[in-house]
Amino acid sequence: MSRCVRQLLLISSSRLEGYEPLEFAANDINTLLKKNNVSTLLFIPYALKDHDTYLANTTKIFSKWGYEVVGIHNSRNPIEAVQKAQAIFVGGGNTFRLLKTLYDNQLIDAIQRRVLEEGVPYIGASAGTNVATQSIHTTNDMPIVFPKSFEGLALVPFNINPHYLDADKNSTHKGETREERIIQYLEEAHAGPVLGLREGSWLQVEGCKATLKGLYAARLFVPKKDAKEYESGNDMSFLLDDDWICRCKQ
After folding, report:
1. Helices then strands (H, E): number in the chain?
2. What keywords are assigned to this protein (predicted)?
3. Which of 95, 149, 174, 191 meets the CB 3.0–4.6 Å disulfide criterion with 130?
């Protein structure tokens, strides 16, 4: 599948202290939707159990900006809903539940075709960002259900850890840090790069160009190398290079 037309906003979380939901990313969200003449978003609320309440809350956010929101759960044919979507927004919640439902409704291929071949805008937040990546191995969520595969939509060829947290040096907690858990993942032969997105940050992908956006830096983990910090505004296009990804796994 061609990736040169993809248009993605992969957001760490929809909520951030001091902001209304998604307010901190409103400029990029609106720029993406308006340049594609989007009037209606297809919302995928599968990460939470109560789809209707989730839809109502999401509608409040986007209606302020002038968009209609349609919940995929209200469609008799979810595949057809994806095929007709002007843009897709996948919200947060439990990543395992979200991915399982995408597989159960046979939506993986349909979303991939719309986004990677037809350039339909895709916005993900939290779990919606997790499933957009190569796999959900680096989610923070509990496996409350078992999807048929951990493989995600592969809209990008690496993994993201949303809600990335730095270790608190003043904490008395002695459990594993987020960094330690990601390093454990990197010890596996199948593991590739992981971008740790802190709250209030997101990755913007336009074709083969990726840019780190938002209020904070991100931390990139690569097998057999030290983690590296990248400031907001940094060009992250190398993450989309399949040859670079392959070298990272060697």
Report:
1. 8, 11
2. Hydrolase, Protease
3. 95
Residue 247 burial by Cβ neighbours in a 10 Å radius (0-12, 13-18, 19+): exposed
- Pick from 142, 179, 136, 176: nearest CA to 158: 136
Sheet strand arrangement including 194-197: 159-161, 194-197, 218-221, 228-230
Work out the number of other CB atoms within 10 angstroms of the CB of residue 227.
Answer: 14
Please answer whether residues 159 and 197 qualify as being in contact, where contact means their C-beta atoms are separated by less than 8 angstroms.
no
**Residue 147 is encoded by which pair of tokens?**
């999807």
Phi-psi region of 136 (alpha: psi -120 to 50; beta: other; left: phi over 0): alpha
Question: Which residue from 186, 190, 192 is spatially nearest to 244, judged by alpha carbons?
Answer: 192
160-182 tens-digit pLDDT: 999 998 877 777 776 789 999 99
Statement: 7-249 belongs to CATH 2.60.120.620 = no
Residues designated catalytic: 126, 141, 163
Residue 109 is classified by DSSP as H
Name the nearest CA neighbour of 198 among 183, 180, 178.
Answer: 178
Element (H or E) spanning 201, and its range?
strand 201-206
Token pair for 107: 């939506």
Q: Are strands 201-206 and 7-11 parallel, antiparallel or unpaired?
A: antiparallel
Q: What is the pTM of this model?
A: 0.96
Token pair 């910090």 is at which residue?
A: 229
Beta partners for 229?
Answer: 219
Residue ranges of the domains in the chain?
Answer: 7-249
Six token digits for residue 133: 């990546």
